[in-house]
């Protein structure tokens, strides 16, 4: 069985299992490579470079070329390189460089060629369904950001927003004639968008479009997989399926609205979203922890404080709980543990439904 320990990026790009993982999200290959990366964290950079080569060669105008043809073409280039390197000393028509240098050069040439074409044409195809789109982008106005390292990297975008990219993530950015800020994401990114009501900020990835004015949020989505996850840290975003976008259903009422501490997973099987409270909600209001020290405090007041602090809607019968009070110290507890302890104190239960927390109680007598 291959260990891939000493594979170079171009050798990974030629490997069938690696290509199936990147291009098709094959379940078996995905499991293998994710486990391999966990065991070989020092190879993140090589994998990111190989990933970009594979993706670039599968973009238009290369996507109609078979994997076998791509492999033959890369092999042919590398064989030519090796021939040049091994040329007799007397043959002065060839420049002699180490094989590794020529291999890297071959990758850069291929990626640059694909990147030029995508920069000129790619967003036009992606945004063709936008009913008001008048894209005038060129390769000069598009900016590409690639994290080919093994650690997260933060980049400043041309509009003074920032994005933090996970290893192996790429982001394309441009501003169209309508003033919209357009990005195309492949990977895992945390955005901090500069507010500008006149210039919406759009993120395209797989079958999901996220539209914001000014907020901070995270999107996770990889080529070869239909899975998309959007989580909001501050502010508000609208999330649309590609089908809605192409049909022109892009009004605020038609999109899924996410606010702070809410997230949504796109369910590719039926084109819908699953909305939820994020795993570790953060405070959206600067409420001191001392305020979570309670002494015979009415529970409805505690719930009001929680909603104000975390921006999460709590659903309960206010009249039914008006006689409930609680004495407790909840200053060091995460949100969901706060809810759980409160429910234990008043003999209630809770469940999460559609990014809301629903409290079930028979009241206190």
Walk me through this protein's architecture.
- With 365 residues, the protein is α+β, with helices and mostly antiparallel strands.
- It contains nine helices and 18 strands.
- It has helices at 9-14, 16-24, 27-39, 44-57, 67-85, 99-126, 242-246, 299-310, 335-345, and strands at residues 143-146, 153-156, 162-165, 170-175, 181-192, 201-205, 208-212, 216-221, 228-234, 236-241, 256-259, 262-267, 272-277, 293-298, 314-315, 325-329, 349-353, 356-360.
- Strands 1, 2, 3, 4, 5, 6, 7, 8, 9, 10, 11, 12 and 13 form a 13-stranded mixed beta sheet that branches. A three-stranded mixed beta sheet has the order 15-18-17.
- Helix 2 (16-24) crosses helix 3 (27-39) and helix 5 (67-85) runs antiparallel to helix 6.
- The relative contact order is 0.07.
What keywords describe this structure?
365 residues; alpha+beta; 3-stranded mixed β-sheet; 9 helices; 27% strand; elongated
- Output the structural class: alpha+beta
Radius of gyration: 26 Å
The description of the largest β-sheet is: 13 strands, mixed
Order of helices and strands: HHHHHHEEEEEEEEEEHEEEEHEEHEE
- Regions with little confidence, pLDDT below 50 for 5+ residues: 59-65, 81-140
Count of β-strands: 18
Per DSSP, the total helix count is 9
Give the rounded overall mean pLDDT. Answer: 76
Strand content: 25-35%
The amount of helix comes to 25-40%
Give the termini distance in whole angstroms: 68 Å
Shape annotation: elongated
């Amino acid at each position: 069985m291959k260990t891939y320990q000493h594979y170079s990026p171009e050798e990974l790009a030629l490997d069938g299992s690696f290509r199936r993982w990147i291009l098709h999200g094959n379940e078996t290959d995905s499991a293998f490579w994710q486990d391999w990366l966990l065991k070989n964290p020092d190879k993140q950079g090589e994998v990111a470079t190989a990933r970009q080569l594979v993706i670039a060669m599968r973009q238009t105008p290369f996507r109609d070329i078979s994997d076998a043809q791509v492999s033959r073409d890369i092999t042919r280039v590398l064989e030519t390189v090796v021939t040049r390197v091994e040329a007799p000393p007397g043959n002065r028509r060839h420049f002699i460089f180490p094989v590794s240098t020529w291999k890297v050069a071959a990758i850069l040439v291929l990626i640059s060629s694909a990147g030029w074409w995508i920069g000129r044409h790619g967003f036009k195809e992606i945004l063709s369904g936008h009913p008001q789109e008048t894209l005038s982008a060129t390769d000069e106005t598009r900016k590409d950001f690639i994290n080919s390292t093994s650690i997260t990297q933060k980049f400043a975008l041309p509009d003074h927003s920032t994005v933090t990219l996970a290893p192996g993530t790429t982001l394309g950015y441009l501003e169209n004639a309508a003033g919209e800020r357009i990005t195309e994401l492949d990977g895992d990114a945390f955005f901090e968008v500069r507010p500008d009501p006149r210039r919406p900020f759009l993120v395209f990835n797989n079958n999901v479009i996220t539209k914001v004015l000014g907020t901070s949020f995270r999107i996770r989505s990889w080529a070869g997989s239909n899975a998309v996850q959007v989580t909001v840290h501050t502010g508000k975003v609208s999330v649309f399926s590609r089908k809605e976008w192409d049909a022109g259903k892009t009004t605020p009422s038609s999109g899924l609205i996410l606010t702070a501490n809410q997230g949504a997973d796109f369910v590719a099987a039926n084109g819908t979203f699953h909305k939820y409270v994020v795993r570790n909600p953060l405070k959206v209001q600067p409420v001191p922890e001392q305020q979570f020290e309670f002494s015979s405090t009415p529970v409805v007041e505690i719930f009001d404080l929680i909603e104000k602090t975390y921006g999460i809607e709590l659903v309960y019968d206010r009249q039914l709980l008006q006689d409930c009070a609680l004495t407790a110290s909840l200053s060091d507890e995460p949100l969901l543990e706060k809810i759980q302890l409160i429910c234990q104190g008043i003999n209630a239960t809770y469940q999460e439904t559609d990014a809301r927390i629903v409290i079930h109680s028979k009241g206190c007598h």
